[in-house]
Write a sequence for this structure.
């Protein structure tokens, strides 16, 4: 398994440990649609010393409910870090569940630009799988992570688990977090758990999540800003020094 040329500092992430289940097909729930995601501006100098970032996920990554999609957490985190950032999110998409454009994570990975050279890849989600048969989640996630590592062998993979859109947290969402956490531990992939780290609680829920009919329990502008701050702290702890071993 690829280790990447960068290693996450232990304090930066929570890595769990869980068993994996079976999967369904080779597409493994990934969305191939490329029209929906926005690409971050490519104004960064070609020879920038800063890392490059790819954020891949669902409607939260797309920036849904933000005033503009580029006000979403993924763009804001990259901007905060000063990293050249590419964002690929599809509403409704998950490891198992097709999004509104028909793609699951597995098929969407195949649509990513092979010429990208990200130093860090964040795979976010997937709360959208909470209504699916989760027996296939671990195998689907394994396939997606391996496909990303094969496509971008020099990148460090970071998995950002599901964050609650409603409280109390649904049991299915907790199971998704546990499955992904345990898989990440087995595969030695960095895992960030917004549930375990309590990113969203009763104390800040109203400020983070927009419960209006239009936004459908997605992060508000202030919510996206908050999530960007939390993610940036995690990513900033990455040790970008090449592994000499």
């Amino acid at each position: 398994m690829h280790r990447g040329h960068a290693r996450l500092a232990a304090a930066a992430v929570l890595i769990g440990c869980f068993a994996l289940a079976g999967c369904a097909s080779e597409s493994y729930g990934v969305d191939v649609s490329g029209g929906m995601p926005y690409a971050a501006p490519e104004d960064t100098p070609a020879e920038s010393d800063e890392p490059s970032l790819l954020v891949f996920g669902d409607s939260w990554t797309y920036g849904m409910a933000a005033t503009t999609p580029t006000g979403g957490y993924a763009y804001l985190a990259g901007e905060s870090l000063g990293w050249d950032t590419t964002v690929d999110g599809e509403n409704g998409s998950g490891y198992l569940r097709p999004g509104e454009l028909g793609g699951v994570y597995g098929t969407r990975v195949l649509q990513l630009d092979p010429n990208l050279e990200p130093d860090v890849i964040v795979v976010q989600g997937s709360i959208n799988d909470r209504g699916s048969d989760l027996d296939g989640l671990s195998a689907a996630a394994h396939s997606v992570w391996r496909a990303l590592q094969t496509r971008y062998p020099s990148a460090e993979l970071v998995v950002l688990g599901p964050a609650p859109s409603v409280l109390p947290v649904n049991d299915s969402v907790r199971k998704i977090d546990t499955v992904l956490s345990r898989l990440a531990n087995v595969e030695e992939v960095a895992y960030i758990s917004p549930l375990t780290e309590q990113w969203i609680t009763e104390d800040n829920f109203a400020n983070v999540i927009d419960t209006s009919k239009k936004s459908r329990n997605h992060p508000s502008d202030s919510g996206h800003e908050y999530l960007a701050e939390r993610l940036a702290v995690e990513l900033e702890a990455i040790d970008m020094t090449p592994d000499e071993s």
Residues 171-187 form the longest helix (17 residues). The first strand starts at residue 7 and ends at 8. The beta strands are 7-8, 29-30, 52-57, 84-89, 120-124, 156-160, 190-192, 209-210, 218-219, 238-239. Residues 1-41 have pLDDT under 50 and may be disordered.
